[in-house]
């Protein structure tokens, strides 16, 4: 995608988002569903403004990076310490029990056990972006159930890294080797984004707010 096309797609996304949020709020369906409907409207199965989805995948990668920064901004070490039992207790129980149940169901439908385990782990995960946005829309962030949900989501995000590392092990093909360097780089990138979001962006935002 050329620079001008990339910029045009970005402007189109922003316009669709700005139009979708108030409309979704007016209809009472929530901002997340509004974003999904906006994507359908401008995509190849709607008005066709965006025809090649593969060319604009960079936007989704950028969105994930910003999401990690936002999570880092909101993480408070003392709060995490208070939620440690919920994160590693309820969060771990949700992931492990859901993955085991779903893997068992997949094995009953003649999936190989390796594929069933990978599918079970994948289906046990939730979308952090959608869930956090829905909790914000419902005003659940400060509630007990909201804190519990946040703990589960946080553990799921942490579990993604070992889950990705597990895939090549379960693949078991002779030409696949377990690349510890790549896994280590993913772990460092994840930790770096969390630390950067908290300790680098927050002072910058405070400086900008004080200057303005």
Automatic annotation (TrEMBL):
Record-level GO BP terms: proton transmembrane transport
Pfam family, one: Na_H_Exchanger
Domain of life of the source: Bacteria
Subcellular location: Membrane
TM segment ranges: 6-25, 32-50, 56-75, 87-107, 113-135, 147-171, 183-201
Gene3D superfamilies tied to this protein: 1.20.1530.20
Membrane topology label: Multi-pass membrane protein
Cation/H+ exchanger transmembrane domain sequence ranges: 14-209
Molecular-function GO terms, alphabetical: antiporter activity
PANTHER family xrefs: K(+) EFFLUX ANTIPORTER 3, CHLOROPLASTIC
UniProt-recorded name of the protein: Cation/H+ exchanger transmembrane domain-containing protein
Organism: Escherichia coli
């Amino acid at each position: 995608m050329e620079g001008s096309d990339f910029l045009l797609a970005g402007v189109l996304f922003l316009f669709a988002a700005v139009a979708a949020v108030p409309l979704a709020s007016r209809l009472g369906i929530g901002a997340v569903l509004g974003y999904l409907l906006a994507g359908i409207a401008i995509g190849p199965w709607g008005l066709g403004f965006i025809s090649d989805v593969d060319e604009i995948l960079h936007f989704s990668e950028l969105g994930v990076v910003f999401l990690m920064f936002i999570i880092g901004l909101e993480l408070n070490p003392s709060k995490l310490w208070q939620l440690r039992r919920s994160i590693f207790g309820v969060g771990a129980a949700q992931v492990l029990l859901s993955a085991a149940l779903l893997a068992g169901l997949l094995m009953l439908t003649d999936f190989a056990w390796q594929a069933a385990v990978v599918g079970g782990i994948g289906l046990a995960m939730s979308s952090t972006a959608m869930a956090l946005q829905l909790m914000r829309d419902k005003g659940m962030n400060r509630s007990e159930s909201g804190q519990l949900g946040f703990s589960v989501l946080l553990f799921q995000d942490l579990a993604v890294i070992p889950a990705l590392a597990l895939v090549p092990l379960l693949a078991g093909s002779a030409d696949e080797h377990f690349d510890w360097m790549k896994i280590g780089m993913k772990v460092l990138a994840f930790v770096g984004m969390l630390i950067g979001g908290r300790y680098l962006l927050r002072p910058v935002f405070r400086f900008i707010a004080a200057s303005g």
